[in-house]
Design goal:
This protein has 430 residues and is an alpha/beta fold. Helix content is 39%, strand content 14%. A 6-stranded mixed sheet has the order 4-5-13-10-11-12, with helices on both faces. A 4-stranded parallel sheet has the order 8-7-6-9, sandwiched between helices. Strand 10, helix 9 and strand 11 form a beta-alpha-beta unit. Helix 3 runs antiparallel to helix 12 and helix 12 packs across helix 13. The protein binds ligand F0G. Ligand F0G binds next to helix 5, helix 9 and helix 13.
Length: 430
């Protein structure tokens, strides 16, 4: 039996799994889905492996294949799947060398149907919306949640309402929500301000909220960890490195790891390393300085996906960092840009926020926090094509950090304009 439970350890109020609720009615705390697991780990591993051979849409989904590990539905007829998950774990020797590691493997969530890890969570959030009989769904987004929600809502026949910080998301992501038919509102405010607005609207109009404060999104994102462990034959790595914005993914990863250990799928919990952009790093600063959690009022970064100053899930993320003996690092705009070019040179590519992982690894190995020989999985959260404008500017020396400082194109690969003349071109190629 699944339940919703208040995440705050001093409250732990319980609610029905079908309550439309994003925060505890008693204390205002975050909610999580909770289960009484009674599984045989060996049997589950075998079942997950067998399902890879199946053409049943639920089994073919890299999320629903692991459905015993987030068993919140009573029937699966309300599931909309776009064959999400199934993302590769890619060895990247060149990127490892740049990061100061002997080896690194990228779990590339950019291979998802809408190009980001949000699809893993959205298929679960939309299933819950359908189960509850909701007709309208909404989110505020830095672009990926909205692209994902737009696609799944369209496929499920729900009306999608999307709220974006005007002028501060990549064009590719905005384009996705338009193409998938979502009603798209560009608000003259930042992500944190718009989230408050959307929460008010959701309550007022009975619209189902699909931001990561929705506990079912978090349940789906756990599958990123389960699939990665399955791909490694359930050998837990030493470290999992991921970017942190609203901190939903950090919460999901920590919960997945704790539950995987509880069930006996793994014996040890890897350490989480969360990387933030220096201009939007409230969680890093909180962990480093202690005291009260303080939001960053004017978050800045060209990695617009993680341009968030008041992350909703910080209490969960704090718990998971402690439970995994994790660390939080921050990286500069220059470090993100260079690391991103290196991920590209490795033949892999990712969007700017994702590159914070490799930039963070480089910093953490230099500090001796991560050992050169450590077994590291780095999560790339979004596809290279999400933000081509950033790429063009970097490689042509036109990329400027917020505030106007020039970003040095250290690994630039400039396009060359040539006349329509074979001899001249042959000469240039050399
Ligand atoms: N990487 C990418 C590509 C993202 O889109 C996001 C978040 C993150 C990392 C950070 O993940 O919020 O779970 O800590 N994007 C959200 C959005 C906020 O609206 O698409 P987080």
């Amino acid at each position: 039996m699944a339940e919703l439970v208040c995440f705050d350890p001093s409250c732990r109020e319980r609610y029905a799994i079908t309550d439309v609720l994003y925060n505890c009615r008693r204390c205002g705390g975050l909610l999580e889905a909770a289960y009484q697991f009674d599984h045989d780990a060996g049997r589950l591993k075998k079942l997950f492996r067998e399902r890879r051979m199946s053409n049943d849409p639920l089994d073919a989904s890299g999320v629903w294949r692991y459905r015993e590990l987030f068993d919140f539905l009573d029937h699966y007829s309300c599931v909309t799947t776009l064959r999400e998950g199934n993302t590769p774990l890619l060895e990247a020797p060149l990127a490892a060398a740049y990061g100061g590691l002997d080896r690194v493997a990228f779990k590339h969530q950019g291979f998802n149907p809408t190009g980001s890890f949000k699809d893993n969570g959205m298929t679960c959030g939309v299933a819950q919306a359908r189960r509850l009989g909701m007709r309208r769904v909404a989110c505020v987004s830095t672009g990926n949640t909205s692209a994902s929600m737009a696609a799944y809502a369209a496929a499920a026949g729900l009306e999608a309402l999307i709220f974006l910080p005007h002028g501060n998301i990549s064009f590719g992501k905005l384009a996705q929500s338009l193409e998938y038919g979502a009603r798209t509102f560009q608000v003259e405010a930042n992500f944190d301000q718009i989230l408050a607005l959307v929460r008010t609207l959701a309550e007022k109009m009975g619209i189902y909220l699909l931001n990561s404060v929705n506990p079912f999104r978090i349940e789906g994102q756990k599958s990123i960890v389960f699939e990665m462990l399955d791909q490694r034959d359930w050998r837990a790595p030493d470290w999992i490195v991921l970017p942190g914005g609203n901190l939903g993914n950090t919460s999901a990863f920590g919960k997945a790891l704790r539950e995987a250990r509880e069930i006996g799928l793994i014996g040890t919990i890897p350490r989480l390393a969360v990387i933030q952009a220096a201009g939007s790093a409230p969680f890093h600063d909180f962990i480093e300085n202690g005291g009260e959690f303080r939001a960053v009022e004017k978050p800045e970064t060209l990695a617009t996906a993680i341009r968030i100053g008041d992350p909703v899930s910080w209490p969960k993320a704090l718990y998971e960092i402690r439970a995994s003996r994790g660390v939080v690092e921050k990286v500069s705009e220059q470090e993100i840009a260079d690391a991103k070019a290196q991920v590209g040179r490795a033949g892999i590519g990712c969007e700017p926020a994702s590159a914070a992982t490799l930039a963070g690894i480089r910093k953490l190995t230099a500090k001796g926090v991560i050992a050169r020989g450590a077994d590291v999985v780095a999560v790339l959260t979004g596809n290279l094509l999400k933000d081509p404008d950033y790429i063009y500017r970097y490689h042509t020396g036109q990329l400027q950090a917020p505030g106007g400082a020039k970003i040095e194109p250290r690994f630039a690969n400039r396009p060359v304009v040539v006349p329509n003349d074979a001899d001249r071109i042959a000469e240039l190629i050399g």
